[in-house]
Amino acid sequence: MKFFLDTANLEELRKGADWGIVDGVTTNPSLIAKEGIPIEDQIRRICAIVDGDISAEVVATKYEEMVGEARQLARLHKNVVVKVPLTRDGIKTTAQLSKEGIRFNVTLCFSAGQAILAAKAGATYVSPFVGRLDDIAQDGMELIRQICTIYKNYGFGTQVLAASLRSPLHVAQAALAGAHVGTLPFKVLDQLFNHPLTDKGLDQFLKDYAKAFQETAAR
Ligand code: E4P
Question: Is 0.90 topped by the overall pTM?
Answer without folding.
Answer: yes
